[in-house]
Every structure is written in structure tokens, then in C-alpha cells.
Amino acid sequence: MANTELRIAAWAAIISAVLIIPSYLISLVFESYRGMFLFRYSYITILIIGTLVSLLILRGYLILGKKLKLGLLRVMSIILIVGNILMVVFELVVLAIRQSTVTIFISLAVVVTFGIVMIIFGVSVLALRKRFKNLATALGVLYIMDGIMFASVFLVLLYPLVAIPASILEAVLFFRASKKIR
Q: How far is it, in rounded angstroms, from Cα 140 to Cα 94?
């Protein structure tokens, strides 16, 4: 059963790699043309699809954390699963109300907090090095870089440069794990 779920996480990582650029572009265009009906629904659709894909990937990390008895990875996976759901709900609420200084401030606080959590998650992924060597090291470092980009807020524009290789490496990790871990 875990093998199937790890393969699902691998396929979700592949889908994530394919969706990163379109979702990034849609979110940039949406920020410029918030009032346009087409962009609003495109943004909501890509937000929901991206979240579902992320949840499948995080479920893969949760399984690895449980199977390999890596407490920090397990806890961080749960935190990110809950955090992703809360962030999407927050984003949908912000879309429904008028944007104000308060919502902008809260959004910035959420992005910085998410960045800090991603740094800790990256450290927890490094614990996979015993089983997955350089692959886990590369993924952990990419997650730490991702977290730094979000925590700094301004570097978040470089997110696709880290997210695409991370998604590809995640797919490889989960496919390998599905063969190694019973």
C-alpha cells in the first residue's frame, strides 16, 4: 500500500514540475488584472489543482517519515499539509473580500512564516540521506533555498528556478522509495 502511495506522490511531483511555470505566470497575470473574470477563475483553478498536487507530495513525505521513523519529517509533513490547506482557504477568503492594508500585511506574514517552515522542512528532508544519499541532500538544500526565498519575500520571484528541479528530484525520490521501502 505504501508503495502505491509513494508512486502517486512521484506522479504528483511530475505534475507539479509541469504546472510550475503556468501557475507562476497565471498568478503574476492575476496580480496585474485582479478584476478580470477569466483570470480570477483561472487563478482559483490552478490554486486548487496545485494544492491537491502538493498534498499528495506531502503525503509521500509523511509516509517516508513514518516508514523510516523520522519524527521531524513526519511532524513537518503534517504541519505543511495543514498549512497548505489553511493558506488556500486564506487565499480564497482574500479573493472574496476587498484587499486592504491589513490583508496585505497578513499575506506577507503568512509568506514569511511559510518560508521559515520550509527551511525546517528542508532540514527534515536531509535526514533521508542515510537511505537516499545525494538525492536527499539535493532535495533538502533546495527546500532550504525555497524557504529562504519565501522568508525574504523579494526572492520569491525566483521560486520556479528552485521548484522545478525540486519537483523532478522528488519524483525520482518517491519512485526509488516505492521500490526500496516495504
A: 31
- pTM exceeds 0.70, yes or no: yes
User: How far, in Å, are 64, 97, 99 from residue 77 at the CA level?
Assistant: 10, 30, 31
What's the total number of domains in the chain? Answer: 1
Ranking 81-90, 94-103, 115-124 by mean pLDDT, the lowest is 94-103
pLDDT, tens only, 145-166: 999 998 887 887 888 899 999 9
Containing structural domain, residue 62: 2-180
3-state secondary structure 130-151: HHHHHHHHHHHHHHHHHHHHHH
Q: Angle at the Cα of 110 (from 173 to 126), degrees rounded to 5?
A: 25
Q: Name the grid cell of 171.
A: 519524483
